[in-house]
Write a structure and sequence with these properties.
It holds the Pfam family adh_short. The protein is α/β, with parallel strands linked by helices. The protein has 5 helices and 5 strands. The protein has a single domain, classed as 3-Layer(aba) Sandwich (Rossmann fold), CATH 3.40.50. Helix 4 runs parallel beside helix 5.
């Protein structure tokens, strides 16, 4: 039988781009499944993030809000460190911030693809710093 302390530890998910769309839905679902969620988007979308967090809390979930530009390495490092400090860990990383915006994939020059790959690398390395020693951590890249 698990100890009381172990039974009360919640898994933590960080979701980028969580102010709207698919990321918002993912955050709401993870919270309803019992995970503590850390909601991320750029500073200009702080109010939207606060609304999502309020919806999650009203439904009985736990949510924290943090703004960061995930295309900037220092922001990603600070964000993942903040998640671990405020939420108690990092078990699931959902990278879904829309860096490129709407586009036609076959008509897109190579440079924006490189930018999106750089974003993925930043998010992965930022989250990896905190999940590398854990047995059951997950990184999901959606956008």
């Amino acid at each position: 039988m698990a100890s009381t302390a172990a039974a009360t530890i919640k898994r933590v998910a960080l979701i980028t781009g969580a102010s709207q769309g698919i990321s918002k839905c993912i955050a709401q679902r993870l919270a309803s499944d019992g995970l503590r969620v850390a909601l991320n988007d750029i500073a200009a979308k702080r109010d939207q993030l606060q609304d999502v967090a309020a919806q999650i809390r009203t439904s009985g979930g736990e949510a924290i809000v943090m703004t960061a530009d995930v295309s900037r390495e220092d922001d990603v490092k600070a964000m993942t460190t903040q998640v671990v400090q405020e939420a108690g860990g990092l078990d699931v990383m959902v990278a879904n911030a829309g860096i490129l915006g709407p586009f036609k994939p076959l008509l897109l020059p190579l440079c924006p693809w490189r930018h999106d790959l750089l974003y993925l690398a930043l998010v992965f390395t930022g989250s990896h710093r905190h999940t590398s020693g854990w047995h059951h951590s997950t990184v999901v890249k959606v956008s």
